[in-house]
Design goal:
The chain is an alpha+beta fold. It folds into 3 domains: 97 residues, no CATH class; 75 residues, Gyrase A, domain 2 (2-Layer Sandwich), CATH 3.30.1360; 134 residues, no CATH class. Helices cover 19% and strands 33% of the residues. It has 6 helices and 20 strands. Strands 4-5-6-9-8-7 form a 6-stranded antiparallel barrel. The radius of gyration is 29 Å and the shape is flat. The two termini are 36 Å apart.
Length: 330
């Protein structure tokens, strides 16, 4: 059978671009308001034959706990599979105060098969950095993926659960907000986006913001807001800017998924791939926009090209120097 050549000459007519804005709070985070990771090792009791088989560690832990109550527990009283040694973890804001409650995550350390129906005994939570006890946790463990009949309805791991409102801060963490100088960090560093944020802030609060680099913006709190800095931060977070993104293409060859950033431009080129011949020409009229990779992929899809064909053509465009963007293969 004679090979069929499909000639694709791409002309893309002017279409007004739509810029989508984002709130500043969604693209930055305030430095100094970090989250502190706390961790502890505890015991979940009351399990119905789904706990650890080897209970030597649980015996030691129960013995240590019982000393606080002046009680001595015989190791023979601790039955296998009724208790489980677990790791308790949580991230809390640095400004948390004594008495604040929060959810904690509990996960089995050894060979327990399920934490369903268990109770986490009082467990100290410490900072791995300082070793200081900052919170404690206790309460019933909730395991996902179980319905009211006890039947599994999903593949959620039964050895990981949550104790809702089971954690309690026992010492003020001491985090505070600087009332005179703030610094914001971009989640996706970019010089253009940083400058747009500075412009938006200065339009509302003149001469208060400046970009330090592609990821950091320093803001001086106006005198009128130094006693109400939370209000000042809230107003900044509500400002809308249009984040800039680099021209990037991510290709997953295993799944055939192609992710294309906006404005990935193509320079004039002619490529023949299998039964497809591409000729991309430069616009001759100022009212005709440049060709983007998104335009090309849309046209190829209309022709019935396979994901393999499209990935091969994108690779060829990159090798030919036509693709104006970063190509990433996963």
């Amino acid at each position: 059978m004679r090979k069929v050549l499909l000639l694709l000459v791409i002309f893309m007519f002017f279409v007004s671009s739509i810029a989508y804005g984002a709130r500043i709070k969604d693209i930055v985070q305030l430095q100094g308001i970090d989250r502190i990771h706390l961790v502890g090792m505890g015991l979940v009791v009351g399990l119905q034959g789904t706990g650890d088989r080897n209970i030597s560690l649980a015996q030691q832990m129960l013995a240590n706990m019982s000393k606080n109550f002046g009680i001595t527990i015989s190791q023979d009283l601790i039955k296998p599979r009724n208790v489980a040694v677990v790791t308790v973890t949580v991230d809390v804001p640095s400004y948390a105060k004594e008495g604040d409650l929060f959810d904690v995550q509990v996960s089995s350390n050894l060979d327990a098969t399920s934490l369903q129906g268990g109770i986490l005994l009082d467990t100290p939570l410490i900072s791995p950095v300082t070793g200081e006890e900052l919170a404690r946790a206790q309460g019933p463990v909730s395991v996902g993926g179980i319905d009211v009949t006890g039947k599994t309805r999903s593949k959620s791991p039964l050895t990981v659960g949550i104790v809702y409102n089971g954690g309690k801060i026992v010492k003020n963490l001491g985090g505070t907000i600087n009332s005179k100088q703030l610094r914001f960090s971009l989640r996706n560093p970019d010089f253009t986006t940083a400058q747009r944020i500075v412009t938006a802030i200065n339009d509302k609060f003149p001469d208060s913001a400046k970009a330090i680099d592609s990821s950091s913006i320093e803001v001086t709190v106006p005198q009128d807001y130094q006693n109400k800095v939370v209000d000042f931060i809230a107003q900044i977070e509500g400002l809308v800017v249009v984040p800039d993104t680099s021209a990037k293409i991510v290709v997953n060859e295993r799944t055939g998924v192609i992710i294309i950033g906006k404005d990935v431009l193509l320079l004039p080129v002619a490529i023949e791939y299998n039964n497809i011949k591409l000729t991309i020409i430069a616009p001759q009229d100022e009212n005709v926009k440049e060709v983007t990779l998104g335009d090309l992929v849309q046209a190829l899809n209309a022709l019935g090209a396979t994901p393999k064909d499209i990935i091969g053509i994108i690779s060829a465009l990159k090798e030919a120097g036509s693709l104006q963007g970063e190509l990433i293969f996963q």
